[in-house]
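Allow me, if you will, to draw on your knowledge of protein folds for a short while. I have a record of one protein: its chain in single-letter code and its fold written as C-alpha cells. I should value your view on which stretches of the chain appear to form regular backbone elements. Thank you for your consideration; the sequence and its C-alpha cells are set out here:
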Amino acid sequence: MEVYSVMPCKGCTLWQGLLLTASLFTCCHLSTTAQVTIESVPPQVVEGENVLLRVHNLPENLLAFIWHKGARDMSLRIALYSLAKDTSVNGPVHSGRETVYRNGSLLIHNVTQKDTGFYTLRTINRRIGIASITTKYLHVYTSLVDCGHHLTSAQPTIESVPPSVAEGSSVLLLVHNLPQNLLAFFWYKGMVVFNNLEISRHVIFTNSSMLGPAHSGRETLYNNGSLLLQNVTSKDTGLYTLRTVATDLKAEVLHVQVQVDTSLSTCCNPLMIEPVPWNAAVGESVLFLVHNLPEDVRTFSWYKGVSSFQMFKMAEYNRTMNSITPGPAHSRRAMVCTNGSLLLQDVTEEDAGFYTLQTLNRNLKTETTHVQLHVNQPVSEPFLGVSDTTVPVQSSVLFTCLSADTGISIRWIFNNQSLHLTERMTLSPTKCRLSIDPVRREDAGEYKCEVSNPVSSKTSLPVRLAIMNE
C-alpha cells in the first residue's frame, strides 16, 4: 500500500496536511533507530543573547519536523519545516524571534526569562508518521555572574536546622544552592536510593509532589528542595539522601545526617556522635565525641565516608587486646580514643564530609552511626560598591557587596545598625545587591555590608551616601 507524502485533503494548509499525516499513524510505534538529541549552544544563555537548539542525528527520509513550546501541549507550535517544499510555516506561539533550519535546529534571538522552559521537536516521515519526539529544557539566566560569583560555582549543600533536635520537635533539612536546571528531586530515608526508601519527590515541570513508601505522614517537602521532619523520634536518627535529576538527565546525590537528642528520653540511650565544634575552621581540631558506647562492644572501627568498606577504614580498636590497628584510609592527623571518639587535628577542606562509626558487640551484632563534618575557610573582607555616592531625591541608587568567598550570608548595615528594609528597598536573591528606588532624604548616611559563614564574619569599609534636593 502506498503512503502519500502528504495525505490529500481539499483546502488543507501545509500545517493541516502534515498534521493529518502524523495523526493517521498515532497507533504505530516510534522509530527506535533515530536517536535524536538536542544541544543548547551556548550551554548557558543570558537574557538578551541568542541560543541555538542544535539537533543531532536527525532521521533520514523525513517529510517535516515541528517545534513546540512545552513538553505536553502539542498545540503550542512554534514552527513547522517541510523538507519536501523546503519552506517553514510559523505556528501560533512564534514570537518573531525564532528561526528554523533545514537540519532541524531552532535559533532563538534575544532570549528573555519567558523563554525558559521545555522545547519539543517532533519529526514526521513517510513510513510511520511520527518518527521521533525529543524534548530539551532551556534555562535563561538573568546573569551568569552574581556579585562576582559564577552561578554555576555554588555547589548544592544540605544543612540540618537545628544540628541536633530534641525528640518531639521538628528539624528542617535546608537545601542551599539547588540547581536551576532540574527535572525533579527525590528524598530517601537512609544512604541509598531504593524505591522502598523514598519519602517524597517533586517534579519541577508540573510543580507537583508525590509521597513515597517511606513517607510517615510527618514529612513536608518544599519546592526549594528542603524537607521538614515533624515530631521526630529516635528512629528518625540517621542519614537522609537527596537525589536531583537535571534536564540533561544527570543525577546527583547528597546526604545529610539527622541527629535526634534522646538525653531526656526515659526509655533508651542510643549511640550518638557529637562533633565538637559543629562547624570547624580550616586548621582547627575537631572531636567526634561518642555518647552511650555500649559496654559489650568488642571492637569499633572508623571509616571516611558513609560506607563501611575496608578501603575507607581509618582505624579499628580492639577492646579485648586494647590495641588500635590503622586502616587504608588512616591519617596521621587522626587519633582514635578508647571511648569510641575520634580526634581530627589541623583539619582541611578535604576533611569535610561524612564519617562512619561501626561497632561490633560480643554477640557479633554490628551497629552503624554516621556524623558529618563541616569545614569552612574564614571569610575575607568584602568590598562595597555604589552606583553614586551623591544622588538627588526621587532618584535611585544601587549598592553591591563584592566578596571572594562562597557559601556566605550577607547582612546590610545602615549607620552601624542592621538595615530595616522599606518598601522602596529591594535585595537581589543572594542579598548581594541593595537597590533603593526612589531615594529620600532619610536614606542619607553610612552603609556597610557584612559577610559571614559558620566560622567567621567580616565587614566592609563604610560608604557614605549623600542626598541632594532636586
Remarks:
- Residues 1-12, 20-32 have pLDDT under 50 and may be disordered.
